[in-house]
Design a protein that fits this description.
Number of helices: 4
Order of helices and strands: EHEHEHHE
CATH class: Alpha Beta
Radius of gyration: 15 Å
Distance between the termini: 31 Å
Number of strands: 4
Shape: globular
Oligomer: single chain
CATH topology: Rossmann fold
Strand content: 5-15%
Strand order of the largest sheet: 1-2-3-4
Mean pLDDT: 79
CATH architecture: 3-Layer(aba) Sandwich
Largest sheet: 4 strands, mixed
Structural class: alpha/beta
Length: 131
Amino acid sequence: MIAPLHNIKLKGVLWYQGESNTAKPLRYSQLFTTLVNDWRHNFKQEDLPFLFTQLANLETNNNHNNWAILRDEQRRSLNVPHTAMAVTIDVGEYNDLHPQDKKASGNVLPYVLNIPLTVKRLFIVDLYTRK
């Protein structure tokens, strides 16, 4: 899908992860790392910022806690340089896979871009300052 765009210079990528990986959440961080590295390679931008939204909350009655495991795997993805995660655990609705308030999730991401790193930690988890 993105192959035809490889000649475009990107400022960054905003990635909203859906629930499709909750069935097999283990090693999601490895999949995400591969995705980020592939995009950076194909766009020839080794430091391309990747900003992603962590899965929101949902009551699944799943004894295996797959949603929580996937959220932790997303947190582990922050080991990839020039990535940041917008935490949206408080944005979702416990009983709706697709929360009605989509704007709230979208409003979290600008904090990654517009607030100084020292303040960002209040809203998101970032590794921009780590090597």
